[in-house]
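Student: Hello, beginner here. Can you help me understand the protein record under this note? Any guidance would be welcome.
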Amino acid sequence: MKIRSAKFGVATRCARSTITLLAAGLLTAASAQGAEQSVTIAGMSVFVWSNDVPAPQAVIVFSHGFHGCATQSRFLMEAFAGAGYIVFAPNHHDAVCRGGNARWSDKPTTPFQHPETWTAESFRDRADDVRHLIAAIASDERFRSRVDLSRLGLAGHSLGGYTVLGLGGAWREWKLSGVKAVLALSPYSQPFIVRKTLGDLSAPVMYQGGTWDLGVTPAIQKTSGGYEQSPEPKYFIEFGRAGHFIWTDLNKGFHEEIAAYSIAFMNHYVRGEPAAPALTRAAPDVTLLRFASELGRSDASGGKKRGVVR
């Protein structure tokens, strides 16, 4: 795992200044936090974030982690809403907080330690939740005139990352049509890596991980791991000294950078906006940035290439 060093000198400092200004610019648009509401859709407890705008908005559906809940990453949901998206986050059956019915002592139906035993039936209820939610939104009188489901992005953390990767095509049986982008935040991707199914992803993907996220990130960045198995366009952002919960409200250390990269990715691939520099430049806390897309290609170590600074 390579870490930035001082040898990049002035170029690195300039890149840091650029990415800091970029993050500030992206998040200024999101500073007016989207209003949050709790509703029941398709029989599920769902939290919704949005701003009051007249035109139909692009949609992001967020899937929480195992024993998390719909509001676990409120900072990011608010940032998406502030950037002009309408965000829906259901409480899955394994949710514990904010109205979840599960218990902390409940064990996963298939053990995380044995990804080779996972199949498309593993946590399929989560995929069904997202599918039913989207179908219900399209006909729900509260939302149907406010959503533009032709611009749909999926985001998920941990087991939620597994969920959205599966819906993006990593489980062929789950594949959800119309998905424009998949944002996988410290995703449990090992079942797909073992079975080599990430090549079936049909939407651009951005992986985010951390150097202290030892149970998840190494599987993504290793040779023949999740990033390398995924088709283009693809991105991988690794934050230094970051553990598994930096993508939740439990740890506030990297929230601005996470939101900046996530919004830049969704803006480009869901809304079709010009690519922001964040997609190919590393923020100060980023130890590794890899990409292979229409924007160019970084080398295997995430080092300098086509203006990329790690």
